[in-house]
Specification:
Length: about 150
């Protein structure tokens, strides 16, 4: 990992392989980015620098948005571009996905599912550190079907 994120050199997270991120086996990351990390990628990288695995990488499988999100972050950095822009200007068009977004335009909001808060008020997914990379894609059923047919 530290080959791709130099600031993690010498840390436990820096020793985690990209394969471990993609297979959810880095050693026990939390399900979500911790609440206290909300500013930027630098804050996230400081968290990762002090992170300690619960188990050796490759020995346990636990789903973790920070792991898969970091894989997206590294992918975008390796292409020297912004993740959201890469998805919306390169990947979605290449797959023929015309109604998939990282950032749903206001005029299209009614076409996309929303959730509800504890008080039953309508709510949309909030942004945050790694939100695009971990769970940011919104697609119509037609685009999801097209994606499945293309694989």
């Amino acid at each position: 990992m530290s080959k791709h994120l130099l600031s993690l050199a010498g840390s436990e997270f820096g020793k985690v392989a990209l394969l471990n991120l993609g297979t959810h086996t880095p050693g026990g990351l939390p399900l979500q980015v911790p609440d206290e990390i909300h500013d930027d990628d630098d804050q996230l990288l400081r968290y990762f620098k002090s992170w300690r695995p619960a188990q050796p990488p490759g020995t346990i499988r636990t789903y973790a948005n920070p792991g898969i999100g970091t894989l997206g972050l590294i992918t975008a950095k390796s292409m020297r571009q912004n993740f959201d822009a890469l998805m919306q200007t390169r990947l979605f068009p290449a797959l023929g996905l015309k109604h998939s977004y990282v950032d749903v335009p206001a005029a299209k909001q009614r076409d996309y599912a929303q959730g509800y808060a504890k008080d039953d008020a309508p709510v949309r997914m909030k942004g945050g550190v790694l939100s695009s990379e971990a769970y940011g894609v919104r697609s119509t059923a037609a685009d999801m079907t097209r994606f499945l047919q293309s694989t």
